[in-house]
Structures are given as structure tokens and as C-alpha cells.
């Protein structure tokens, strides 16, 4: 007669969790686009990134305002920079606020990296509140 041991129960649980994780990853990959990952160009000419400017895609609108006495500015990054900035640059009083676009489209910054925001303007405003008048020190 076989008896369920703690070791075998943990092994079964770990296998089930790993399987669910793989299934979720596979679902996300198939639900977000074509199976081969290639999206056909709508205009016939834009087939890749190649350093092209991406300001017209889904980039948030530029902004320039004074919020709680601090000047916050945001605009698509020159050349449509990709990577952790999400192709967007934000400055507080002329100093760059390091920000990142998450996979789900939300934004975070180095000042508020545990809270997500809908757009870079909201990130900049939250950073101003969090800084409480302190100067923003750029990352090196």
C-alpha cells in the first residue's frame, strides 16, 4: 500500500505550480499576438524598429507643467528609445526622473517603484509628492 509522504506531496505541489506557470506563460504569449511574434506592418513600410521614431504609436502625450511648485516635463524620447524608459523621458526641475514602463502598460519610477501609474504625468506628480521638496538626484 502506498502512503503519501510529505516529500511526495511537496513534489506534486511544486509540479502543479510549475505547470500552471508554464500554462499561463503560454496563454499570455498566444493571447497577445501571432504565434511567430511578427506583427504585419499596417503602413507597409514600417516592418521593424531600426531606430525609428515611435512617437505616434501609443506614446503618452507630452506635458510641461508646474506641479506643487516643481516643473515637470515629459515627452517621447528622441529616436524612440526602447528598453526600461519605454521610449519616454520625464524631468523634474530639469533633472531626469528614471522611469520604466511595465508589460501591462503601467509606469513606475525610481522614486515610487512599488506603486504603478497609468501614465508618465501621474508618475511625475507622485514623485514630486514623494520627494517633499527634496532635489531629484539622477541615477549614475
TrEMBL record:
Keywords: Copper, Signal. InterPro entries: GriE/MELC1_sf, MelC1, TAT_signal. Pfam families: MelC1. Residues 39-61 are annotated as: Disordered. Residues 1-28 form the signal peptide. Belongs to the melC1 family. This is Tyrosinase. It comes from Streptomyces crystallinus. The lineage of its organism: Bacteria, Bacillati, Actinomycetota, Actinomycetes, Kitasatosporales.
